[in-house]
Here is the input.
Amino acid sequence: MKGDLFSSRHMVQPATAPGMTVENAKCIRYTVDGEMLARQGAMVAYRGSLQFERKGQGVGGMLKRAVTGEGLPLMSVRGRGEAWFAQEAQNCFIVDVEPGDEFTVNGRNVLCFDATLSYRISTVKGAGITGGGLFNSVFTGHGRLGLVCDGNPLVIPVTPQQPVYVDTDAVVGWTAGLATSLNRSQSLGSMLRGGSGEAVQLALQGEGYVVVRPSEATPHKPQQH
Here is the structure.
């Protein structure tokens, strides 16, 4: 076969090392030699001897399902082979988590991660209402975390002198050392008179970075099975 479709720009090359790599802007490849975890339904192709299993249910399992957002469970991938992961053609990025690091991320942005990483479900301090970015997972340990983002993310430094306020529907995640709270920027009267509509933001203070996507959350599309 000939044509641009079969050029080296699109052709998958042999894996050079185990673990997670960015295959292209929209897809992550994971060379599995043991076990890794991924968002259920995110696998688009694989080769080799791999087994895909849902994560356990029960109360603890149901809580950990929140890591993927929209109520989707995680799956474990075991064996030896290669798997490719993507989510609705969103842009893919990799975060290297090192010992002592802590990265809080919105579940809707999690694509896949090393089994050596630990995570726990956390709610944003002061978040007494439901909404995007208020129910997150905190990753610690040593390993790589694959994320998706609708567009190219904005990484904004946060300093004690310059706190940052972000839309709760746009936030992707933030680093350790940042204190969070909800900030109300408008009064009800201002909104009724025609304000910006951004009445509540997530306030981040301290020393670190916050990652946001250049768009607000859109309603989740039902998955096709």
About this structure: Residues 119 and 139 are 4 Å apart (CA to CA). The chain has two helices and 16 strands. Confidence is low (pLDDT under 50) at residues 57-62, 128-133, 221-225.
